[in-house]
Specification:
Layout (H helix, E strand, L loop, with lengths): L1 H25 L2 H18 L4 H17 L5 H21 L3 H4 L23 E5 L14 E3 L2 E3 L2 E3 L2 E4 L5 E3 L4 E9 L4 E8 L3 E8 L1 E2 L6 E2 L4 E4 L10 E8 L2 E3 L1 H4 E2 L4 E2 L3 E9 L2 E6 L4 E7 L6 H7 L4 H8 L12 E7 L18 E2 L6 E3 L9 E3 L6 H7 L4 H8 L12 E3 L2
Antiparallel strand pairs: 1-17, 2-5, 3-4, 5-13, 6-12, 7-8, 7-11, 8-9, 9-13, 10-12, 13-14, 15-16, 17-18, 17-22, 19-20, 21-22, 23-24
Helix pairs in contact: 1-2, 1-3, 2-4, 7-8, 9-10
Length: about 425
């Protein structure tokens, strides 16, 4: 054992000195530090106590750093990379845990209900679409069926033309929540929960290339296009959802340009008759879809949304004799309760991009023609810490970004701070 230890020790110090020369001549500090990280445990295993030689090499490394006026840059870089990697891995394994909690259902597309363990319907939530990747690759994207009412049913996604066998790609980084088959609906389909809080649905597939609970990256092949389930021709049924609620993909994504309209959107929980509905909007006036429930009529629905029966009929092409049935999607004009809205600075444009949805609407962050200052949110930041860094109050920060004081900040999102 003593002989083996001596051999290992000799090899250790020989390799370390070789890399020290590389370090001095080629400025490859990260190689040398990586070697130290791996080789120090080897020295301990060998049972050797050549501490003086190790200390000599460490001193030479520090002297070289001092001479170069960049002490411990490589070590700091490695540590920073390790921290970033760990955070990214955790985000992928537990995507958007801050709002979805421990709810990881492998069967239902929209299982979320108030009171579920750890589920959070926030007052407002900022979502980044900056990393979006088109789910299909083509020089020209053809939308074969839009989002909205269709044959007295609600079509909660958008249909994109593909051929059987065409590759389908993940829209964002995330983790596969559902990989299943539905004969009278989606056919073969996938649901992926993404790190930004959005969930995407991919329907009518001929084959899935990933399994449930698999981690996927934006742009990674996940399936092949098909014509399974309730489908009259090969296409991809693509949905974007937030907390189970469908939004119109075309309102956040420009399918002609094959990119999102904006990098960031703010979802805001609205109130109707002083009660949170867990529906989201950010505009003074907005259209949403209401699904008729048992016992409801046009009068009760008009009262709920503070509108008139006549306006409901006009918006939905109904006549005085039309009988509404349970399950019918009705388009309603929602008037925002201005008492819940923080004041906006004079001259600032509030509505930049509006997104309609089935009980979900989205608006991009406000813009200004002056020279604003933006701050990219880091892990551990909150409204108070960001406001303090920029010498302002939380109230002012909220006004500048048209958000509430309870908004959950997402790492990587951008806040305007001046």
């Amino acid at each position: 054992m003593i002989l083996i230890g001596a051999i290992l020790s000799s090899i250790f110090f020989l390799i370390m000195r070789i890399f020290l020369q590389l370090y001095k001549s080629m400025n490859t500090r990260f190689i040398y530090i990586g070697l130290l990280t791996v080789m120090f445990p080897l020295a301990e295993i060998s049972g050797q106590t050549n501490g003086e030689a190790v200390e000599t090499d460490k001193k030479e490394l520090l002297i070289a750093d001092k001479d170069d006026r960049r002490p411990n840059v490589a070590l700091e870089m490695v540590e920073s990379m390790e921290i970033t990697l760990n955070e990214a891995e955790e985000d992928l394994l537990f995507p958007a845990e801050g709002i979805y909690g421990e709810n990881w259902d492998n069967h239902s597309v929209a299982p979320y209900r108030v009171g579920m363990n750890g589920l959070n319907f926030p007052d407002s939530f900022m979502i980044s679409f900056a990393s979006f990747t088109m789910p299909v690759k083509s020089d020209s994207i053809k939308v074969t069926s839009p989002y909205g009412p269709r044959r007295r049913r609600m079509h909660r996604g958008i249909d994109l033309k593909v051929q059987v066998g065409d590759t389908i790609y993940a829209a964002f980084d995330g983790r596969v929540r559902i990989c299943s088959f539905e004969r009278r609906g989606y056919g073969n389909y996938l649901v992926i929960r993404h790190t930004n809080g959005i969930e995407t649905v991919y329907g009518h597939l001929s084959k899935s290339l990933v399994k449930v609970n698999a981690v996927v990256r934006a742009g990674e092949p996940i399936a092949l296009g098909g014509n399974t389930g309730r489908s009259t021709g090969s296409h991809l049924h693509f949905e974007t959802r937030f907390l189970g609620q469908a939004i119109n993909p075309a309102d956040v994504i420009d399918f002609d340009a094959q990119e999102p309209h904006k990098d960031f959107y703010t979802f805001r929980n609205i109130k109707i008759n002083d009660h949170y509905t867990n529906s989201y909007t950010a505009t003074d006036e907005q259209f949403i879809y209401h699904t008729v429930k048992a016992g409801e009529n046009l009068s009760s629905i008009a009262t709920r949304y503070k509108t008139t029966v006549g306006e409901l009929r006009k918006l939905n092409g109904l006549t005085a004799s039309t009988q509404i049935r349970v399950g019918l999607p009705l388009k309603c004009r929602l008037k925002k309760n201005t008492s819940d809205t923080p004041p906006t600075p004079n001259g600032e444009t509030v509505v930049d991009k509006v997104v309609t949805a089935e009980h979900v609407t989205v608006q991009s962050a406000p813009t200004d023609t002056s020279s604003p200052v933006y701050y990219r949110i880091k892990e551990g930041d909150n409204l108070a810490s960001v406001a303090s860094k920029h010498g302002m109050t939380v109230e002012k920060l909220c006004r500048l970004n048209n958000i509430s004081s309870t908004t959950i900040l997402k790492s990587g999102a951008t806040l305007r701070c001046m």
